[in-house]
Amino acid sequence: MASGVWISLFLYFALMIVIGLYAMRRSTSSSEDYMLGGRRLSPKVAALSAGASDMSGWLLLGLPGALYASGLASAWIGIGLFVGAFINWIIVAPRLREQTVHYGNALTIPAFLANRFPTKALPLRTVSAIVIVLFFAVYTASGLVAGGKLFESAFAEIINVGGMSDYAVGIVITLGVVLVYTVVGGFLAVSMTDFVQGCIMMLALVVMPAVVLFGEGGGGFAQASQTLNEVDPTLLSWTEGLTFIGFLSAVTWGLGYFGQPHIIVRFMAIRSIKDVPTARNIGMSWMAISLIGAIALGVFGRAYAVRNGLDVEDPETIFIVLSELLFHPLITGFLYAALLAAVMSTISSQLLVSSSSLTEDFYRLFLRKEATDRECVNVGRACVVLVGLVAAVIASDPESQVLGLVSNAWAGFGSAFGPLIILSLMWSRMNGAGAVAGLIAGSVTVIIWIALGWNSSFMGGPGVYEIIPGFIVSWIAIVVVSLATADASEYQPIQR
């Protein structure tokens, strides 16, 4: 069986590398080419690149696992993300595409903020770059952990490379392929591979639930619903056992979209503002199909497991378990490739955003202001490798809790950058002092909230997701400080 799986995985890896080599010939001659693909992304590539870089292994592991364990009540996270993504396309996408060009043709989020608020350019650029690199090192590590666990679960005792564990080999293979196409082809390679990976992910999330429901041993909707009702009637309830705080913590995941650098950078790279509505429609359609598939996989995968006596120790492995059980090895390999696609699309995006910040907001700002574009491209490539290696070290312990930090990192980015991006694009009275205050206030609030354990238990009740207080405090800090330190010379005209 393993040979068929490896054939599919080999073809997938080869395709990613070929795309990287193609992109190298098209878009690595300047910093703008390497970091933003020359701002020439088509609507379909921009849309699926934003979606694929967003979802990561969470779409095929985390969300189905949550639905498998607790039923439809967990689907509110997906609904909140869908609404947040839609609003992000409406509010942020067109304005960010226009204003990053208007304010000095900024190639990174820190550079845009510095150009938008010149009186606080240095602290904004420095602090935001540090936040991006540090959070993304951990965020990238979580993706490598997912890749390692896939190989550990799917190829146990099959891989034997110099005495390395299956988990370690999985990390090396995942990171190695990502580094090749990211280092070689830059942003265009990352975006084009994201497009292919997004298609693979969506197809897997259409095929898998359909086979689980209507294939041998499935029984269809009626039989699956009956089985779930016999196990626990609350599994098919959207609200049973869900408190208001729990509901609020779930749907407010969508607030994180406004501040995720690896997602909103796609808006900066889209071909033109006129392409944004088309990209939005494509992206939201992809997201709807993928989320519905993930939800169906978790819920009906539970019914299938019960009906067929499957022992699934870890709910988050339901995709892996069913991939191996229900399909021919070649198809199983394709489904594993879909999971790797989810992981690798996010890793590559995070590596490139971190590399861009290190190059533009540290190397070019402090070390070599006169650096040529070619030099910056080479430095960017070196930084991709550097951040990737740091992430691999963080992910090296299979017992680490890195995966548990994903929600914290999402909240940290959403709180630090979300209100900052929205208000900088839409409120002309905002100034540099307010921007710095919001960036610091949002980050610190999230860190304190987590440190005090209030995301697990708050005032004797259920925990409150840290993005809620972080986002609110950041927004208030920006408004209050901007009004209190009004500087008419810094007011910038909004371009839309």
Helix and strand arrangement:
Blueprint lengths: L1 H25 L4 H6 L6 H13 L6 H9 L4 H28 L6 H8 L4 H34 L11 H49 L5 H12 L12 H8 L9 H9 L6 H32 L10 H9 L2 H39 L5 H23 L10 H21 L5 H20 L5 E2 L2 E2 L4 H18 L12
Antiparallel strand pairs: 1-2
Organism: Marinobacter nanhaiticus D15-8W
Function: Catalyzes the sodium-dependent uptake of extracellular L-proline.
Catalytic activity: L-proline(in) + Na(+)(in) = L-proline(out) + Na(+)(out)
What does this structure look like?
- This protein is mainly alpha-helical and 496 residues long.
- The protein has one domain (2-403): Sodium/glucose cotransporter (Up-down Bundle).
- It has helices spanning 2-26, 31-36, 43-55, 62-70, 75-102, 109-116, 121-154, 166-214, 220-231, 244-251, 261-269, 276-307, 318-326, 329-367, 373-395, 406-426, 432-451, 467-484, and strands at residues 457-458, 461-462.
- The chain has a two-stranded antiparallel ribbon.
- Strand 1 (457-458) and strand 2 (461-462) form a beta hairpin.
- The chain is globular.
- The model has no long low-confidence stretch (mean pLDDT 83).
- Catalyzes the sodium-dependent uptake of extracellular L-proline.
